[in-house]
Specification:
Layout lengths: L4 E5 L6 E5 L2 E9 L6 H11 L5 E8 L5 E5 L9 H11 L4 E8 L6 H18 L3 E5 L1 E9 L3 H10 L3 E6 L3 E9 L3 H9 L5 E2 L1
Antiparallel strand pairs: 1-7, 2-3, 3-6, 4-5, 4-6, 8-10, 8-11, 9-10
Helix pairs in contact: 2-3
Length: 199
């Protein structure tokens, strides 16, 4: 049976600081659900850290199919984004953005030193985060006539379904979410009622 849960962050982490040879690495981890959320978060960090040299990050989105990106922001290739992403993988979290802000301290760290510093900073940011388990949900839209309202509501209550949105007029429409593992059963229950359509 495929897993129908994933781990993500409950809230943004507190700021962490890792120092290596006078360079400072500030780490941040954020819960995100779309790529559009990434840029504004990085823009905010650039305002907070105006004299920092590098804003390196990695994010991963999705539970079933995973999409990720890394950014070295001017550091040598794969010395920052990939080590950060490695920590996202090792913590087993998704829908997460980890940013490490670096102030250069005048001493070059070398690629090995950078990889280690970015990895440690990402690890600290994730350790400072509250990690929660969420279910992978499937959305269904149920359409029915007003006369079936009680029937539908009873099923929603019995099966412990979440109502995402609802339109109640002569023809009612409710969007429900349910855990992936319960989805076939939920679909079955509603499909068996001839006056109700579900998709």
């Amino acid at each position: 049976m495929k897993k129908d849960t994933y781990k993500t962050l409950a809230a943004p982490s507190s700021e962490t600081l890792f120092k290596e040879k006078n360079s400072k690495f500030f780490g941040y981890a954020y819960p995100v659900t779309t790529e559009d959320e990434v840029k504004p978060l990085i823009t905010d960090l650039r305002k907070q850290h105006q004299s920092a040299g590098h804003f390196c990050y990695a994010f991963q989105l999705g539970a079933d199919t995973v999409y990720y990106r890394t950014n070295d922001d001017g550091e040598p290739n794969n010395s920052a984004g990939m080590p950060i992403y490695g920590q996202i993988q090792s913590f087993g979290v998704t829908n997460v953005l980890v940013v490490v802000v670096r102030y250069f301290g005048g001493v070059k760290l070398g690629v090995g030193g950078l990889i280690s510093a970015y990895r440690t900073s990402a690890q600290m940011a994730l350790e400072a985060s509250e990690i929660v388990e969420k279910t992978i949900d499937v959305l269904y839209t149920v359409k029915f006539g007003y006369q079936d309202m009680n029937k539908v509501m009873r099923i929603i209550k019995e099966k412990n379904l979440n109502i995402v949105s609802q339109k109640m007029e002569n023809n009612c429409e409710i969007t429900l979410s349910t855990r992936k593992q319960n989805a076939p059963m939920v679909f079955e229950v509603f499909s068996s009622l001839h006056t109700i359509t579900i998709k």
